[in-house]
Design goal:
Layout (H helix, E strand, L loop, with lengths): L1 E6 L7 H14 L4 E6 L1 H4 L6 H17 L7 E5 L4 H11 L4 H5 L2 H8 L6 H15 L5 E3 L5 H18 L7 E3 L29 H9 L18 H9 L2 H13 L4 H27 L2 H30 L4
Parallel strand pairs: 1-2, 2-3, 4-5
The structure holds tryptophanyl-5'AMP (TYM).
The site of tryptophanyl-5'AMP has 25 residues, from β1, α1 and α7.
Length: 321
């Protein structure tokens, strides 16, 4: 079974990226063949500064390695290093109905906010379909917000297979129920575009500050509270084991506590969890060639697989004479 996923280098990774997606990458890397890539072509729809894009791409690789991605187990590469995927995108685009793309929420959301959309943003799910189908991927670990895009990839594969004969493997999304939609400091989905993120590699002091920003209700300390609907509790649960979660839920139901104390506990838990990765990251930055070598080896391996799939598609469509 081949696991594949991609992540955009559009800024610092946050808790949503980690608990929704990256944690799954790491869990799955030893079980199956795993391909993970940094989606710099997708990032071009928002980042137009060349130096920034190349720096963020390298930063993303460092982050993933520091968080536990093992280059001996998983293939790590940069999306644009595999030109076969761009050719496949065009081929898939020719059979993709406009209506399918118009229904995609990422596009609809940006449009409704008045952000002017370009063709890159509109056709973004087709590039994502090529990313997935281009490596015969079976399993795609992601957060909830990407599930619709994987449905699009499945639709595109189905209609292509129907027209040209079996060419593509049908991929399945894999989400973790408890962290498919991690809330941000304001209780909405944690997202770079909502200014509500808590970065994974935040220094201890800055981390505490971010955690203190988490919004809470204004009920009196002595009131009993519902843990299930509280995003501070949900964030706490990302780190705590089930016994600690139950203990915290009981504290909520009893009342008589201050949110500040819970935030302190959360900051401690987060520092304990991500602190060692931050140290590993610092060491990795001392050897940039090491990271570049990993990306080059990953791209060489990914290109072989993508070339095999593209060749199949070129024959099926009559592009090869
Ligand atoms: P991106 O870069 O926006 O996000 C990377 C991963 O993080 C997950 N995620 C979350 N999960 C839970 N809660 C949150 N608040 C949260 N925020 C982000 C996302 O679901 C995603 O899994 N289009 C993709 C990148 C991509 C890709 C692919 C993914 C390109 N090609 C092929 C899978 C397969 C994206 O923009 O993810």
């Amino acid at each position: 079974m081949r696991v594949l996923s991609g992540i955009q280098p559009t800024g610092r990774f946050h808790w949503g990226n980690y608990f929704g997606a990256i944690r799954q990458y790491i869990q799955l890397q030893h079980e199956d063949e795993a391909f993970y890539f940094i989606a710099n072509l997708h990032a071009l729809t928002t980042i137009r500064d060349p130096q920034q894009l190349s720096q963020l791409t390298l930063d993303a690789a460092l982050d993933l390695l520091a968080l536990g991605l093992d280059p001996d187990a998983a293939t790590l590469f940069v999306q644009s290093d595999i030109p076969q995927i761009s050719e496949l995108t065009w081929i898939l685009m020719t059979g993709t109905p406009l209506g399918l793309l118009e229904r995609c929420h990422a596009f609809k959301e940006k449009k409704s906010k008045g952000i002017s959309a370009d063709a890159g943003l509109f056709t973004y799910p087709v590039l994502m379909a090529a990313d997935i189908l281009g490596y015969d991927s079976n399993c795609v670990p992601v957060g909830q917000d990407q599930v619709q895009h994987i449905e699009v990839a499945r639709d595109i594969a189905r209609s292509f297979n129907h027209h040209y004969g079996d060419c593509f493997v049908q991929p399945e999304a894999r989400i973790l129920d408890e962290s498919a939609k991690v809330p941000g400091t304001d209780g909405e989905k944690m997202s770079k575009s909502y200014d509500n993120i808590i970065p994974v590699f935040e220094e201890e002091k800055a981390l505490q500050k971010q955690i203190m920003r988490i919004s809470t209700d204004s009920r009196a300390m002595e009131d009993a509270k519902q843990p299930e609907t509280d995003h501070l509790y949900q964030l706490f649960c990302l780190f705590g084991k089930s016994a600690q979660q139950q203990e915290m839920a009981a504290i909520y139901r009893r009342g008589g506590f201050g949110y500040g104390d819970i935030k302190k506990q959360l900051a401690q838990a987060a520092e304990g969890y991500f602190g060692p990765a931050r140290e590993r990251r610092e060491k990795l930055t001392l050897d940039p060639d090491f990271v570049q070598d990993i990306l080059a080896a990953g791209a060489a391996k990914a290109r072989l697989k993508a070339a095999e799939v593209l060749d199949r598609v070129q024959h099926a469509t009559g592009l090869v004479r």
